[in-house]
Amino acid sequence: MKATPTQARGVGSPAPAAAPTLEGDAIAAEHQAVLDQASLLAMHEQFDAVAAVRSEQMRESDALQSLLMAELKSADETLKKWIAMI
Question: What is the DSSP string of 20-40?
């Protein structure tokens, strides 16, 4: 004789899981939406941080390039004066 589902479950074994309800689905969807929004916010913050670092590096590069151009102009003026003295 085969055991029926109620007979197969012994004392102390968990009851079968209930089917998801509409309320449970709505809570799960809301929870997922909050997680998605938090993930999106984290990505935006990471992008802003990378953009800030890149902007600072570009400013430093521009400052160094300006310094190099000033040095080259100074060297060019010095060379012109040496040539004029000859």
Answer: PPHHHHHHHHHHHHHHHHHHH
